[in-house]
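Below is a filled-in request sheet from our internal design queue. Each sheet records the structural input a requester submitted and the sequence that came back. We keep these sheets so that new team members can see what a complete request looks like end to end.

REQUESTER: design group, bay 2
PRIORITY: normal
MODE: inverse folding
CHAIN LENGTH: 175
BACKBONE (tokenized):
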């Protein structure tokens, strides 16, 4: 079994199989580092993949070949932080408030729609964004996923939780 240092030297010589061995040896720890930052398995996989690509491109800059594992984990952490920052920026670009289409013609919102809008505005930011995009802007879940950088399953779960929360709040308001 070759050491990381030996594999790095062979990979620098152009042997892609040596880099594949390094990948298989460290892929779990790199994925774990990214998952710890992002909390989302699919996003962590993306970060891990980007980390290994960046490591391959910059392999010549690694001074101590035996430190490949910690080095690629550090790259993975930076990639995960970058992805998390991009997702946060996308979440901040929430859509403007849209009045319901059934608003009275005098420009005032009836009581039921006002309560609904108030409840939507009380939702956590991440749920409010997906609710407004889906129900007010009529966007499909796949499009919301692309816009926010969140997986489709996450968007679906956020919509489900928001609906449950809104149902409870509006039901409690009536009692």
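RETURNED SEQUENCE:
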């Amino acid at each position: 079994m070759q050491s990381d240092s030996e594999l790095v030297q062979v990979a620098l010589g152009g042997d892609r199989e040596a880099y594949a061995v390094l990948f298989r040896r460290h892929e779990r720890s790199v994925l774990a580092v990214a998952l710890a930052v992002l909390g989302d398995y699919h996003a962590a996989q993306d970060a891990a993949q980007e980390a290994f690509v960046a490591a391959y491109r910059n392999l010549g800059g690694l001074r101590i070949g035996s430190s490949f594992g910690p080095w690629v984990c550090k790259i993975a952490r930076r990639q995960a932080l970058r992805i998390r920052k991009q997702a946060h920026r996308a979440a901040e670009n929430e859509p403007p408030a849209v009045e319901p289409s059934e608003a009275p013609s005098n420009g005032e919102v009836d009581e039921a729609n006002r309560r609904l809008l108030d409840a939507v505005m009380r939702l956590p930011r991440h749920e409010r964004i997906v609710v407004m995009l889906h129900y007010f802007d009529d966007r499909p879940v796949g499009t919301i996923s692309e816009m926010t950088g969140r997986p489709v399953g996450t968007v679906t779960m956020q919509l489900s939780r928001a609906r449950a929360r809104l149902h409870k709040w509006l039901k409690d308001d009536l009692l």
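SHEET NOTES:
- The chain has eight helices and no strands.
- Helices lie at 4-12, 16-38, 41-57, 68-92, 111-122, 125-136, 141-148, 152-174.
FILED BY: M.R.
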